[in-house]
Amino acid sequence: MRLLPFAALATYGVAFAIAALGGGLLVFDDHPGQLYRVWHVVIHGPAPWAWNAGWWAGYPELQFYPPGFAYAGALLHLLSLGRLSVEMAYQVLVGIAYLAPGFAAFALLSRLLGSGWAALPGALVALALSAGIASGVEGGVRTGMLAARLGWALLPLVALAVHGRAATPVVSMLLAAIAITHPAHLPTAAAIVLLAAWPRRSRWWLPQATVPLALGAALTGFWTVPLLARLAHTRALAWGDLAVGATLGQHPLLALLLVLALVAFWPLAPSPPGRDGGRRLLARLPWATGALVLADALGLEPLGARWLPANRMIDGFWLAVVLAGALTLGDLLRRLAARARVPIAALSVATVALVVAVSLPTATLSLWPRHGEWPALGPTARGIRLDDLWTSLAANPEGRVLFVRSGVPLVFGEAWWRPHTHVTALAPLATGRGIVHGTFTHPSPIAALVYRGSAAPGAIRLLAEQLDGVSLFGRPLEQLDTRTLAAYADRLGIAQIVALEEDAPRLGGLADDQLFRRRPAPAPFVVYARSSPVAIPKATGDGHLAVDLDGPPGTWRTARMAYYPLWRASAAERELPTRRGELGDLEIRVDGGPVHAELTYRPGVPELAGIALSALGGVLWVAAVVVSRRRAARS
């Protein structure tokens, strides 16, 4: 019987989701920025290289951040024919992201164990696990790393699909979804596919395994091909460490599951018919995934390859430990139920109670949302007078807004990790003004400029929150003199600067600055603004941008926007040379005198090649579906 235990899991999960999300749009930590990315797709379309002028002096926002979650949110909005607003669609997707790992784990474990009650404890752990894991409830739902959470939920489905009748097309589609949602989970997914093929002991096992991998890669070509071709225009985010020993020491439940995962090599109860392959797969998966994580951490990252951080890949290892440990636990429940003639439902409920009891002292599982820890937009906006800030910014001269901080603290204190919101990331939607900073840690070169004072290559190693109220452009706030700040402001088209009241004493240079003057603003914000607008590229009637430049012949002038190779400049139907400036901005060479330059943005060879590869992958995927159906009809 699987319906009743699933109903119990679903009832608990939905109740948690309503309690956590029912108060309105969640704005804790990263959520506002994730919502902004959904709006990006709705406004600018699905092309990952689409330009968004709202953040960081412009950036192809979804070319260097996996677009899968944003696509899903925009698709919910579009399929509802607008009845679900973008904000409502986002909130629904947050609920789905919360529930998905538990439901996927239940589907896999109940199939392999032949019992929903035996699967229930493991599914509950997969649903409620936090323990400092980025894809857990705290990181993946409350903090807003939703792409990590959704990709995590797809991993049990890959393990479920590899032994299905239509394995190749289903698995390849799941692999593609993981790749564009959270690529750090892709090594775990690939390990599942390879482990599923290996026990067949055929010399063709490797080619058979690579077919769904290659097909999945082809389907994602529209994103991955230009991503790889344009890596020079992004910066790897390399912060955090593995801390496996600390995690096991702080969370005894995970240590227990690791021991049970080792026992999974020796089943404690007979397998249901036809389930041996899946059980072997789960028993081997933690160790294969762990080896991949170590290879990345000890081999690739020291060499500078930080695009798939080991501290993100390790989430797949922890899920594999949960699934393999849950398999042993389910076997134990089945064996006890058979020998002691006790209903397995009663044993399952008792086991769930034991799991909860073990997790409570260390908060390994997030079992219920605490009051005030899941802040919604309405109360937060009233508390910090956000609407008044939007009104103030919209009334000041045109140009971009520089935020001194990445976010706004929600409690008093000095610790950088205290609760906060990056709600200022929504400023472009609320005011029509582009922003620099005011968002979470970001991979754009302009973000690197703000964090460390240089847009040069190299991974971003510190969280933006660690710099809040401490430094800007790589300099302590006290040492940020007006001349230096004015130079950055000119190149980036900044007309306003927003700080918090607690930052104002450290920004002494702005107090007597002749360029920026303090303007009326709601507490806790302090706003400094120019007296006149800043000329930044503006949209023309045909969808292009235009900017007026001036200078002696042969000189390079900044367009006051971020550089990207898809931009072309022209004047009087003649192309103007462009280049990347020292600060990561777009520079245009002028011929002397005033120049009205028109900027056009078009996909290049990598973008078109990626589309062609995805189209080919789509054709091959349809062919794989047809072949799979014919084989199923014959069997």
Describe this structure in words.
With 635 residues, the chain is an alpha+beta fold. Helix content is 52%, strand content 10%. It is built from 24 helices and 17 strands. Strands 4-1-7-9-8 form a five-stranded mixed sheet. A hairpin with a 5-residue loop joins strand 10 (538-539) and strand 11 (545-549). Helix 11 (221-229) packs antiparallel against helix 24. The longest helix has 31 residues, at 310-340. The relative contact order is 0.12.
Please render the helix and strand layout as text:
Layout: H1 3-21, H2 31-44, H3 68-79, H4 86-113, H5 116-128, H6 137-142, H7 146-161, H8 167-181, H9 186-197, H10 205-219, H11 221-229, H12 244-250, H13 252-263, H14 276-300, H15 310-340, H16 344-359, H17 377-383, H18 386-395, E1 400-403, E2 408-409, E3 420-421, H19 427-431, E4 435-436, H20 445-452, H21 464-467, E5 471-472, E6 475-476, H22 482-492, E7 494-500, H23 508-511, E8 517-519, E9 525-529, E10 538-539, E11 545-549, E12 556-562, E13 567-571, E14 574-576, E15 578-580, E16 585-589, E17 595-601, H24 605-634
Parallel strand pairs: 1-4, 1-7
Antiparallel strand pairs: 2-3, 5-6, 7-9, 8-9, 10-11, 11-17, 12-16, 13-14, 13-17, 15-16
Helix pairs in contact: 1-4, 1-5, 2-3, 3-4, 4-5, 4-7, 4-15, 5-15, 5-16, 7-8, 7-15, 8-9, 8-10, 8-24, 9-10, 9-14, 10-24, 11-24, 12-13, 13-15, 14-15
